[in-house]
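Hello,

Our lab assistant flagged a job as stuck in the queue for most of the afternoon. It eventually completed. Since we weren't sure the result was trustworthy after the delay, we are filing this so someone can double-check. Below is the sequence as submitted and the structure that was eventually returned. Let us know if re-running is recommended.
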Amino acid sequence: MSGTYTRGVVVKGPDLLAEHDYRPYICLSDESHPFSDEEAIYAAITTTRRAVAIPLGDSDFVAGGLPRESYANPWTPVSIRHSDIQQEEGRLIEDTITNI
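-- returned structure --
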């Protein structure tokens, strides 16, 4: 899938951190990010509970969601090209994005 993803969208992208085919990420950057028409900064999402990870529940989503109990890892930012994103999974509420 090719498109432009905006701040707060949860996407399925290439797993840059482990040996899986894909991983969910949260888009953190906005149009002020350099090359925002080509790429964005994302925080990784994991199913591993960690003390400082941010739990993502149904109430954190304004649209869509994730099929498993998930946590945002704010210490794991990555830059991903929009063209490498497979699909959009949902969109987070602004309060949740701000906490990441």
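-- support follow-up --
The delay was a queue issue, not a problem with the job. The result is valid. Residues 94-99 form the longest helix (6 residues). Helices lie at 94-99.
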